[in-house]
């Protein structure tokens, strides 16, 4: 995962409503209408959140009639796990021997 993609994913995860959506989708595929009921959001607001989650590849959607059914993109889990692991691999980044010049 490159830096740009990591930023997109972590921004998507940085919103309480989107985390709630992901939690609901852990239980399986959900129609947008079901998400609307559980989240007390307007349809345009839900669409905005779903667009962000889909662009981050955390969620996939399939259209059936006038509704979209969303599910977690489980293939993204190992990629996300690796990104978090890499973030905390501080020993892999060479330390700079630069003294602090604060006064």
From TrEMBL:
GO terms for molecular function: DNA binding; DNA-binding transcription factor activity. It comes from Megasphaera elsdenii CAG:570. Residues 1-92 form the HTH arsR-type domain. SMART domains: HTH_ARSR. Keywords: DNA-binding, Transcription, Transcription regulation. PROSITE patterns: HTH_ARSR_2. This is Transcriptional regulator. NCBIfam families: HTH_metalloreg. SUPFAM superfamilies: Winged helix' DNA-binding domain.
């Amino acid at each position: 995962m490159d830096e740009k993609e990591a930023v997109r994913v972590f921004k998507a995860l940085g919103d309480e409503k989107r985390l709630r959506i992901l939690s609901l989708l852990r239980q399986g595929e959900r129609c947008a209408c079901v998400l609307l009921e559980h989240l007390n959001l307007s349809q345009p607001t839900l669409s905005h959140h779903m667009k962000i989650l889909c662009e981050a590849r955390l969620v996939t959607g399939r259209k059936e009639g006038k509704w979209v059914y969303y599910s977690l993109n489980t293939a993204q889990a190992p990629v996300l796990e690796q990104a978090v692991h890499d973030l905390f691999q501080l020993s892999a980044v060479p330390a700079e021997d630069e003294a602090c010049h604060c006064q």
